[in-house]
Amino acid sequence: MSDQIKQGQVKVGDTLPPREIPITTSLIVSGALATRDFQKVHHDKAVAQASGMPDVFMNILTTQGLTESYLRDWCGRDAVFRKLTIHLGAPNIPGTTMTMTGEVKSCADGLVEVEVLGQNSQWGMHVKALATIALPA
Amino acid sequence: MSSEDIAAFEEKIKAFVGRECGSSTAKDAVNKAMIRHWCEVMGNTNPDHLDEAEAAAGSRGALVAPATMLFAWGQAGYAVAAQGREQDPQTQLFDLFDEHGYVGVVATNTTQEYDRELRLGEVVHARTVIDNISERKKTGLGEGYFYETVTEFTNQDGEPLGRQSFKVLKYCPKNTGGEAAQ
User: How many CB atoms within 10 Å of residue B138?
Assistant: First the structure.
């Protein structure tokens, strides 16, 4: 985790260090269970394929969790999440990589808005997120 | 479907707007073990989620749950895989779409707002309603309808914790010609 970012230390256009996340069956299944999501399409390949997907695919709660953790490593320990909007795109399927990037979109009144993109190496944009985070003074 | 059939169908689905579905009280209070298991997978190393002593000495003064765990507390668990989802107005709406050929499903948007961070011992109650259903739309996947649920989260004392909206597209895949898939 980075040193704590404080109000006044960020500006619009600042970017976050990119992060590559290997998308594996282990990550998809473990993420589904850690978020208590037992829908079979997230742990049973045959069921996922019957739904038209090539393999098990990442559940939304894991996408949210990975986004929060990516942002946490940038904003530091004391920052507080106020809002997270997620627009979902292509699936995260085993054997691919998701590259997360982020950019500051606004800063005002102690709040910073950061856009996070998660680009899947094979399927395109997996997630476009906008997080509102309160920074310490 | 004829235009009369579509009108009748739309009347049926619109009747679901405002109905409560899938509300829950978490079986486990906010706890260190579930937080740690979540953090392990997500790669979250914030000591304020993981170490009670460090958290007590930090700016929060106590351990808190990661924000995006909000929905996880009330999940039904393994029963979903073993027995399937319990019937409620949302599953009935889903079935109605399926019966009319709108068998495709994709979640498109979700927003969570956090009133404050959750502390150990809090019991999360979630109340979900079907908030709105769109007009029939042409999309890249096929014709269909967007419906949105809204969930309000409170604790055991009724204090607000946050809310979530969740938008889903139920669509008729382009190549099926509107026939229900069996």
Answer: 9
Chain A: residues touching B (Cβ < 8 Å): 1, 27, 30-31, 34-40, 43-44, 60-62, 64-69, 72-73, 77-78, 80-88, 136
SS3 B118: coil
Which domain CATH number covers B145?
Answer: 3.10.129.10
Q: Which among A56, A26, A27, A54 is positioned nearest to A39, based on CA atoms?
A: A56
- Which residues span the domain enclosing B103? 3-30+83-176
pLDDT tens per residue across span B110-144: 999 999 999 999 999 999 999 999 999 999 889 99
| CA dihedral over B52, B58, B61, B66, signed as positive or negative | negative
Residue B74 lies in a domain: no
The residues pairing with A96 across neighbouring beta strands, listed in sequence order, are: A23
Asked whether residue B172 is domain-assigned, the answer is yes
**Whole-Å CA distances, A114 to A10, A106, B164:** 11, 7, 19
pLDDT, tens digit, for every residue of B65-111? Answer: 999 999 999 999 999 999 888 889 999 999 999 999 999 888 899 99
> Does residue B148 lie within any of the structural domains?
yes
List phi, psi (to 5°) of B89.
-55, -30
Q: Do B81 and A43 touch (CB under 8 A)?
A: yes
As a CATH number, domain A15-134 is 3.10.129.10
Per the structure, the count of domains in chain B is: 1
The alpha helices in chain A, defined as continuous H runs, are 25-34, 45-50, 60-75
Backbone phi, psi, residue B121, to 5°? 95, -15
CA dihedral B58, B60, B62, B64 (to 10 degrees): -120
The interface predicted TM-score (ipTM) is 0.97
